[in-house]
Known about the structure:
Blueprint: E1 14-16, E2 19-21, E3 26-30, E4 37-42, H1 46-65, H2 68-84, H3 86-97, H4 101-121, E5 128-131, E6 137-145, E7 149-152, H5 160-172, E8 176-179, H6 185-198, E9 205-207, H7 213-222, E10 228-232, H8 235-246, E11 251-255, E12 260-264, H9 270-282, E13 292-298, H10 302-315, H11 333-348, E14 352-355, E15 370-374, E16 390-396, H12 398-406, E17 411-412, E18 414-418, H13 422-431, E19 436-439, E20 454-455, E21 458-459, E22 472-480
Parallel strand pairs: 7-8, 7-10, 8-9, 10-11, 12-13, 12-18, 13-16, 15-16, 18-19
Antiparallel strand pairs: 1-2, 3-4, 5-6, 6-22, 11-21, 14-15, 17-20
Amino acid sequence: xxxxxxxxxxxxxxxxxxxxxxxxxxxxxxxxxxxxxxxxxxxxxxxxxxxxxxxxxxxxxxxxxxxxxxxxxxxxxxxxxxxxxxxxxxxxxxxxxxxxxxxxxxxxxxxxxxxxxxxxxxxxxxxxxxxxxxxxxxxxxxxxxxxxxxxxxxxxxxxxxxxxxxxxxxxxxxxxxxxxxxxxxxxxxxxxxxxxxxxxxxxxxxxxxxxxxxxxxxxxxxxxxxxxxxxxxxxxxxxxxxxxxxxxxxxxxxxxxxxxxxxxxxxxxxxxxxxxxxxxxxxxxxxxxxxxxxxxxxxxxxxxxxxxxxxxxxxxxxxxxxxxxxxxxxxxxxxxxxxxxxxxxxxxxxxxxxxxxxxxxxxxxxxxxxxxxxxxxxxxxxxxxxxxxxxxxxxxxxxxxxxxxxxxxxxxxxxxxxxxxxxxxxxxxxxxxxxxxxxxxxxxxxxxxxxxxxxxxxxxxxxxxxxxxxxxxxxxxxxxxxxxxxxxx
Length: 489
Ligand code: NAD
């Protein structure tokens, strides 16, 4: 495959202690658009994971002592280098994840914005100074890096997920070990190469690919030198990692699965809602944690909404992301094939397939953009993530039913509500039990916003004001000022 652009190529090795290391074992990466072999990537295990932790531990003290301005300068340098390499990032993302070039470019630019955000945040980490309750001493609170951090990322946003974690961790003064998803290792490698070229000290940012995630994560989490896990992926794996981390009380941030309700109230701008639902549902072939999982529409506007939505879905062009298409392939044959079971589940529960419903004949893993309509509320998709180019529409009777149905899930990541009445939007938004509520919009990611979920969707927030604090711990110093005064117990 050609990941060479202008002489540059995505490295295939592991990056440990400031150097790329071949180890003699590899796993294969395939292009989901045609099933072809893209590359052989170094296949790390426990030994390499622990070597990366050794390096991260050695570098931790020095890295946390680097002045904020110097840390910021390195992140700014990385940001500039990233921008120079846009084309190879975009092309590599499309080749290994399948997403159309336009989406890869949008992800690239958003990722660069996140890196810039963290570069700007470094110099603005503030503590507090306060009087004690009895007035006898002072309370000085400062923030310190948590320590060596394990960053585990999924394949569906192969660049954004790494930048959102590594940017915050490095800005906070933590050293890192990144474990990419085996489907999309090269995008992560390009980012680590950027950090290397920007001049980050050795041991600060390490990268371990693997075909056996547990062989890397488990020895690291069992090692008390590891102080943080930041994970994005499924709730099942996140829960397992939290259980493992409990042994050493490892600080953890979890960005997990979602079941996003997309609610269209009776006074909504239906055209706007349709356009936003198309993006929210079919971006990345529906493989997004914040995708619209259940489209819940007030019965009074549902026929018009559904008619326009189906029209637009039929017009979506499916194909190889390297061409001008709207929807690329699923990540693997397995992910595509499971959709027949999903459709069976939906139709058995009373859903009517209005368009789509089949795999596209091709060497790649394509599935037709599909719409399934339910004439009433139905819990078949509550707490089940579709993660596919299948939209489910449910007609409901009024605001109360819409809200109750929307909240009927164990997840709590993204939700959306469409109405022309701002007061109604606020009242509805406040009652949605989700970490994020899009009001009259289907896309919410922004460096200035705290991204994250409640309930089974995870703990912690990425980016915004809060993201950097996920990698910092507060330390409080009690300072005697003048005569120590006795504390009254
Ligand atoms: P996954 O949990 O299977 O994999 C995610 C990452 O975890 C990959 O790097 C994978 O290799 C790794 N992994 C798997 N088993 C592991 C183990 N035992 N130890 C350590 N690492 C392990 O998820 P997926 O199917 O690749 O991604 C889809 C899921 O991720 C969906 O549920 C989606 O909603 C979620 N997701 C959440 C967010 C968010 O920000 N909340 C963003 C993207 C994806």
